[in-house]
Amino acid sequence: MNLGILGGGPVGVEMAVAAVRSGLTVTLMERGPQIGSNVLSWGHVKLFSPNSLNHSTAGLAVLQEMGVPHPAPELFPTGAEFVSGYLSHLGRYLDNSDKCKVLLGTQVLSVGREHLMKAQFCTKSKEREASKFRVLVVGDGGEEVIEGFDIIIDATGTYGNHNWLGKGGIPAKGERGLEKHILYNIPDVSTDKFFGGEEPKVSMVVGGGASAVTTLAMLQG
Fold this sequence. Notes:
Blueprint: E1 2-6, H1 10-21, E2 25-29, H2 37-40, H3 51-54, H4 57-66, H5 79-95, E3 100-103, E4 107-113, H6 126-130, E5 133-139, E6 142-149, E7 151-154, H7 210-220
Parallel strand pairs: 1-2, 1-7, 2-3
Antiparallel strand pairs: 4-5, 5-6
Helix pairs in contact: 1-5, 4-5
């Protein structure tokens, strides 16, 4: 069975490891330049859960086979530590496996079913189930169609798809024009953008979820 996994973050990597160790053929497609690229975008942030909840049995078995020490299960790593101490090793394992092809710097543009149109046999049917998946990707070499997948798993996540600030989830008036000047993730507040310089800095945090509270705590600290 040929498995296509979209996204090289924690979920995609763990899925790829489990599939390879089960004898499946895997193609892992990651938009960023390395495994865990999205995690590294918030690499300064400490995870909300300890290592014991972030590592799979299969993943820890891989580390043991590679001679890599297991991260302490009780510690809460930063995103960067999670990648360097765990995900990057799993990525190396996958890259060296003859059962897995890791495609970095590869953005998935579209997914379809062989010769079928979008609405053709749109309900469950033998015709649609028998048709393999084909994926349009773009990388350094331009666009390419990869075919022959029996299963596609979307592990691209939601972190890069921010919420708008307006009521009802739509953009606030004028927000789209200022989008490049608004930080929609958890920023590294230790930079001069937030502190330092001759003039005092004023920061506004919008929201009341975990990301907002984490940002406020970092600003206060």
